User: Which sequence fits this backbone?
């Protein structure tokens, strides 16, 4: 398949966009299976945002990504510094003055002007450059990780808006059911078949349904603001999002996903971290070789007016033995990186297995709700409504049938959101598309 030899981080972005685009942005539906004429008019008037647009806005405008350009500039400065050879020192030395006897003044003093520096041995300059270069690669990995994290968070917040839209539709359906129930109860009260208390309870039930609708509308607006904050827009106008909350796709097996968890960018970052540790170890090893310090200068004797040259060399002794502690420390830090990688891999494998099982259970629950529970409760509500109108059922039994139906539909929404959120998490853990259809493309 075409992506096998491609950059896994770039593919992660493509897969994330394609997977959620294929799941959510189906042209046949927006969210629900039924719409009233008023809802359709409202959706036409309201600006519409799709997931692809949301992801692009996040990549273009999220302030967290702007930090990396300054961090790269910081490393560029470090590289400039690391590439410098040892500097030069200008020295001035005055001897044999302000003493006693012939040295009481400046007549017999000696003035020395010298220039000194060091010659680096052991490849220290290259080692310093390799450390900075490895840190630059690691920062690039961190930027890609942050990008993927922001894309995943955008997808999750997008789902929150999508779910809020669905809950508003359910709340509107609940209001319609309550209005119909109030009409039926009033008719029975007018005929003397029910007490006026039942009408009062039906009115209270309608008021509660309207309060729930208002609450869901507030949550919807909060979810919109939460999503728009991903690209730094805190005063975004109200908008609708596109998607099908109930399209899950067929996921691959857990064994396949566990085999691909090595592609997780958080595991791959350890490769960049290992390069840093290797470069640091090489830098410490280069300090086993002492630098050669040199100096040259001119000496002038004030008494005779004669001048002469002065030269010197020096080198630290026993550098390798004195450097053993630093080398041992660097080696231990490198070994810690290997252990941390194995620990992180085990943690991700455990999280993947748990998330996969949670998703499978949620799928089963959603399927039973949609195929068995909700149709049965719809039939029960219809039968209860007819039985109540004929006086065979009490008002309590009629209300209970309505409440059970609304609760089941709300649970279906919650399970659908959970399934899609689990899907986002699994894609983060594997850096691969979750559904088989995405892999084949």
Assistant:
């Amino acid at each position: 398949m075409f992506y096998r030899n491609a950059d896994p981080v770039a593919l992660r972005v493509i897969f994330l966009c394609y997977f959620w685009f294929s799941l959510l942005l189906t042209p046949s539906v927006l969210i629900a299976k039924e719409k009233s004429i008023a809802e359709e008019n409202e959706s036409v008037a309201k600006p519409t945002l799709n997931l692809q647009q949301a992801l692009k806005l996040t990549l273009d405008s999220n302030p967290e990504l702007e930090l990396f350009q300054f961090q790269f500039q910081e490393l560029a400065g470090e590289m400039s510094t690391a590439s410098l050879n040892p500097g030069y020192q200008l020295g001035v030395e005055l001897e044999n003055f302000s003493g006693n006897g012939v040295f009481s003044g400046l007549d017999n003093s000696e003035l020395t002007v010298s220039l000194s520096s060091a010659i680096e041995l052991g490849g220290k300059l290259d080692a310093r450059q390799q450390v900075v270069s490895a840190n630059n690669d690691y920062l690039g990995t961190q930027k890609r990780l942050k990008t993927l994290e922001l894309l995943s968070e955008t997808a999750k917040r997008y789902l929150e808006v999508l779910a809020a839209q669905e809950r508003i539709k359910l709340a509107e359906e609940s209001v319609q059911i309550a209005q119909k129930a109030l009409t039926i109860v009033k008719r029975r009260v007018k005929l003397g078949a029910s007490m006026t208390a039942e009408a009062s309870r039906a009115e209270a039930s309608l008021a509660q349904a309207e309060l729930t609708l208002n609450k869901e509308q507030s949550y919807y607006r909060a979810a919109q603001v939460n999503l728009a904050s991903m690209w730094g827009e805190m005063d975004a106008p109200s908008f609708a999002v596109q998607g099908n909350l109930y399209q899950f796709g067929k996921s691959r097996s857990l064994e396949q996903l566990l085999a691909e968890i090595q592609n997780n960018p958080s595991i791959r970052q350890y490769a960049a971290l290992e390069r840093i540790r290797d470069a640091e170890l090489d830098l410490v090893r280069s300090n086993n070789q002492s630098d050669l310090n040199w100096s040259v200068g001119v000496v002038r004797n004030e008494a005779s007016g004669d001048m002469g040259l002065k030269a010197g060399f020096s080198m630290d002794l026993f550098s390798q033995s004195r450097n053993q502690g630093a080398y041992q420390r660097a080696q231990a830090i490198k070994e810690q990186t290997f252990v941390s990688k194995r620990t992180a891999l085990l943690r991700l494998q455990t999280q993947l297995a748990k998330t996969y099982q949670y998703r499978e259970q949620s799928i089963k629950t959603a399927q039973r709700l949609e195929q068995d529970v909700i149709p049965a409760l719809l039939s029960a509500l219809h039968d209860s409504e007819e039985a109540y109108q004929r006086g065979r059922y009490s008002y309590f039994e009629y209300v209970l049938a309505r409440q059970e139906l609304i609760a089941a539909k709300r649970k279906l929404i919650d399970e659908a959101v959970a399934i899609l959120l689990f899907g986002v998490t699994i894609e983060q853990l594997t850096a691969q598309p979750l559904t088989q259809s995405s892999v084949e493309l």
About this structure: The chain has two domains: 8-85+124-288+324-440, 87-119+289-322.
